[in-house]
Amino acid sequence: MQSKNILILGSGAREHAFAWKLKQSPKVKNIFVAPGNAGTDSIAQNINISINNFDSVKEVVIKNNIDLVLVGPEEPIVNGIVDYFEVDEILKNIPIIAPNKQGAKLEGSKSFAKNFMLKYNIPTAKYHVVTEQNIDEGISFLSSFAPPYVLKADGLAAGKGVLIINSKDDAINSLRDILEGKFGSSGKKVVIEQFLQGIEMSCFILTDSTNYLLLPEAKDYKRIGEGDTGLNTGGMGAVSPVPFVDDKLIKKINDLIIHRTIYGLKAEKINYKGFVFIGLMINDGEPYVIEYNVRMGDPETEVVLPRINNDFFDLLEATWNGTLNEQKINISEKTFVTIITASKGYPEHYEKGKIISGLNKVSESIVFHSGTLLKDGNVITNGGRVLAVSSQGNNIQNAVRNSLNTLQNIHFDGIYYRKDIGFEFE
Ligand code: AMP
Ligand code: GLY
């Protein structure tokens, strides 16, 4: 029965979780992860290539008889890896799970995403798109409402392109700075948005362009410090399910956001086979879209995938075949929490190369590797975010306690993690 060879692109805990989940499928024979990390190395075969070099991805696909490619991070997607596959005589028949360049604009261009939401009547913050040519319009838009102001560089800016500013003068200065290149070419256009109040959460869908499955929702904790303080990070932990999410809210998210998003993609003739990650602000029970991502989230994947009981390969194959309507999602009632361990100094300067000990003592939790590397028989730190420790429980506190217990045994020089993931739900 085991026959399929899978290639996963990426090197984080999200990709380790993908490999972990696919390994459970009786249909999957070999899993390759490019470039991967020490965690993926222990359950799959790492291949050290640059995933933004599509010619090297092609070589790997051919050499290893790959039957399906799953793309983790946004960069190769936004750079057009799917379009590269589409026009290649050999690759065009190989399933690849990700949207093409046009679909990737939902994440790669904030102005495209906002215009899409406006066109398809998807609730989101009021906005105005500004370039050097219409900076005056930007300034009068800023004058039309009260602070705080949200400024976003249009293109990908590695999570750093969003500024939330409390005074109009500062906002005008920052607008000029971004247009003049503060975030490089990603800031040639700026989206100015009204600030939305509320509680953030994320939902995830897997779509074949016509049908979709709603995956478990999650909430991530982006700030470095306990109590949601300090600098923004890639994410310091996540929980799923999100306690305040009920059927009524899910129905609103489906009706007002997901249906309209799928309809809009169809109407724009965008062939989208992959994940849509929708960042939401819930205000007074009403959902608004903060952003789209065209991939799964990290650390959200590390709590979402453990709650999905389906064979993950079946879901991905059906996505490619356009038969997701024949799949029924089966979600565990259990709560999952993940706690990210980071290197001292993250998200600013941090050191790499610290030996990680205690990984062999883990039993209660699943440890997904993020920035790790195998060197001379040791697992060493190789990034700002190092490990994602995921645990289940009957509720959030219980699951957090399980991850914290596991973390008592894991050590590396300068290890840092938040002990308060899920704190607002206590
Ligand atoms: P983004 O990269 O668009 O997800 O923005 C990063 C973070 O900025 C989000 O997770 C929110 O916390 C915050 N944010 C973005 N847009 C808004 C908005 N319109 N109102 C309030 N907060 C926002
Ligand atoms: N956790 C947020 C992201 O993956 O973008």
Blueprint (SSEs and pairs):
Layout: E1 4-10, H1 13-23, E2 28-35, H2 38-43, E3 45-46, H3 54-63, E4 68-71, H4 74-78, H5 81-86, E5 96-97, H6 101-108, H7 110-119, E6 127-130, H8 135-143, E7 149-153, E8 162-165, H9 168-179, E9 190-194, E10 199-207, E11 212-214, E12 219-220, E13 223-225, E14 229-232, E15 237-240, H10 247-267, E16 274-283, E17 286-293, H11 301-304, H12 312-321, E18 335-342, E19 366-369, E20 372-375, E21 378-381, E22 385-393, H13 396-407
Parallel strand pairs: 1-2, 1-4, 2-3, 4-5
Antiparallel strand pairs: 6-9, 7-8, 7-9, 10-11, 10-16, 12-15, 13-14, 15-18, 16-17, 18-22, 19-22, 20-21
Q: Would you mind describing this structure in some detail?
A:
This protein has 426 residues and is α+β, with helices and mostly antiparallel strands. The protein has three domains: 4-98, Rossmann fold (3-Layer(aba) Sandwich); 132-188, Dna Ligase, domain 1 (2-Layer Sandwich), CATH 3.30.1490.20; 199-425, 2-Layer Sandwich (D-amino Acid Aminotransferase, Chain A, domain 1), CATH 3.30.470. It has helices at residues 13-23, 38-43, 54-63, 74-78, 81-86, 101-108, 110-119, 135-143, 168-179, 247-267, 301-304, 312-321, 396-407, and strands at 4-10, 28-35, 45-46, 68-71, 96-97, 127-130, 149-153, 162-165, 190-194, 199-207, 212-214, 219-220, 223-225, 229-232, 237-240, 274-283, 286-293, 335-342, 366-369, 372-375, 378-381, 385-393. Strands 3-2-1-4-5 form a five-stranded parallel β-sheet. A five-stranded antiparallel β-sheet has the order 12-15-18-22-19. The longest helix has 21 residues, at 247-267. The protein starts with a strand and ends in a 19-residue tail after the last helix. It binds adenosine monophosphate (AMP) and glycine. Residues 220, 235, 293, 297-298, 300 line the site of glycine. Glycine is lined by residues 220, 235, 293, 297-298, 300.
